[in-house]
Specification:
This protein is an alpha+beta fold. 34% of the residues lie in helices and 26% in strands. The longest helix is centred in the last third of the chain and has 13 residues. The chain is globular. The mean pLDDT is 97.
Length: 87
């Protein structure tokens, strides 16, 4: 299992566009991918689940990945946050 923290840096938070990018990218991997915010856990492959977290700018999220391709998934998904989803 891989687990890491990311900070939401986008001014509008993890709104529909970046949440959709995250969910679509997550579905490319076999591993189970979850996002945790303030004790609430959401399936990272489901757009609505990601949006229900209500992640705002400055929030710290934990990404938990478990499966055969977890290392590749972790690197790819962390990179999305590092690049602010292209915003």
């Amino acid at each position: 299992m891989k687990q890491f923290n990311v900070k939401v840096n986008m001014a509008m938070g993890l709104h529909a566009r970046p949440a959709n990018i995250f969910a679509k990218k997550a579905t490319e991997f076999e591993s189970n991918i979850n996002i945790i915010k303030d004790g609430k856990e959401a399936n990272g492959k489901r757009l609505l689940a990601v949006l229900t977290l209500g992640a705002k700018q400055g929030d710290l999220l934990t990404i938990k990945i478990d499966g055969a391709d977890e290392s590749e998934a972790a690197a790819t998904l962390k990179n999305l946050f590092d690049e602010n989803f292209g915003e």
